Amino acid sequence: MHELSYFRGNLDAIAARLATRGYSLDVASYRALDQERRAALTESETLKAQRNSESNEIAKLKKAGADTTEQQAKVRAIGDRIKALEDNVKAVDDRFYETLAGVPNIPHESVPTGDDADANVEVHKHGTPPVFDFPPQNHWDIGPALGILDFERAAKITGARFAVYVGLGAKLERALINFMLDTHTREHGYTEVFPPVVVNSASLYGTGQLPKFAADLFKLEGTDYYLAPTAEVPVTNLHRDETLDADLLPISYCAFTSCFRSEAGAYGRDVRGIIRQHQFQKVELVKFCRPEQSHEQLELLTSHAENILDRLGLPFRRMLLCTGDMGFSSAKTYDLEVWLPGQNAYKEISSCSNFEAFQARRAAIRCKSAKGKAEPAHTLNGSGLAVGRTWVAIVENYQQKDGSVVVPDALRPYLNAEVITPRGTLA
RNA sequence: GGAGAGGUGGCUGAGUGGUCGAAAGCAGCGGUUUGCUAAACCGUCGUACUGGGAAACCGGUACCGGGGGUUCGAAUCCCCCCCUCUCCGCCA
After folding, report:
1. What's the pLDDT tens digit per position in A62-112?
2. Is residue A270 in a domain?
3. Protein residues with beta carbon less than 7 Å from any atom of strand B
4. Of the residues A101, A135, A168, which one is the last residue of a structural domain?
């Protein structure tokens, strides 16, 4: 959500900037709607002011023992007029805010202009893709062959785009989660939280998934509850409707959760394997900070996610997303892409974004220093990392000719194994 | 699921239907006093939208869990819903 007065005062410049991300703001009709709203408000508020003062007069007259029948009739008439206007005021106001709530964030000046992923800019590359003296396999072949990944049974239990991890496959998932959480809490200064993954609509509105992207969510029938598509939702909403002490910022949280996405509109994309699942696990990093800190905090947060990839010995690159490829709420986003030998390509494994004040305004997350005015805080988040995709990266990058998978050093204490071989599979 | 209690400003906590945006206290901020700390005293101290103003600021409207209703007038009365707490039942 944008700040109203700023939005109004810079409409043309904002529209031009939004156009770079493929959003066309109809300036003329927005302006008309804005004026319509303000006119409607002025009219009804003037009447209300009149009613209030006349009512006070009645109170005074009554106290003096006078008859107020006539005045009461007059104020009742004003009240009737207010009531008649009310529906329109509310309709216009709702329409206005619905429009505004559907406008994406403004790209930061450092974001390159472009239409789609092709215009993303590689910031740097880290590590070298492994060279195999055999044709590297995809994880959807390696996993079932090792007996650590089972798609058929998942389809039986639930359906497409679900998977069962088995034996060391399950343990690898758990090892990754623990490794990531331990690293972020012990070395990067994050406070671990374990939030609900069922969230209400107000929370989803706060982070920007609603009202526009309801189709991407699983909703619990007959309730106002949804399955969270990312821990960003519950963790950012930890501080919804709160004023944070600016001196305590930045606040950094990490959270492990399962995430649920309907993947509506993703038909045919990544249908094989566990790259794109309805349920997946993620360790998320979330930060709240003062406005002037947020861009340095984005660099920091992104480096924390990169550190996980680095420690796991996985080759990756950092991409700065162009205006056309960013998410709705983001002002600036880095994607981390991990090398997947099975696909012979880099694949997104983390997305780190600075939302600036966009979410904070929606969610009423403010910060205030001892002698400052309250202002919207800035919020950030990033995957640190997507666990399932990290699982894929490990299995594919560390695969051996004999079909086994070598466990990277950093994970050995967690997995209590040096190599994953076809053992301990589901009977 | 059943019964009861309650939701008021950053916090605690008052509030007979009529200057209540809301007492009081705490915290915060500014100041006086003080050798320092502490204390005391004085002042100040909500948010959103909106009109005016370069700004400081001034005016209007709304907000006492949410939504309706009664009334000239609602934090206060009525209805519905949500949430929290306590007890009972069930349950990981």
Report:
1. 877 778 888 888 899 999 999 888 888 988 998 999 899 899 999 999 999
2. yes
3. A 3-5, 8, 38, 41-42, 45-46, 48-49, 51-56, 58-59, 62, 68, 72, 75-76, 79, 90, 243, 370-371, 373-374
4. A101
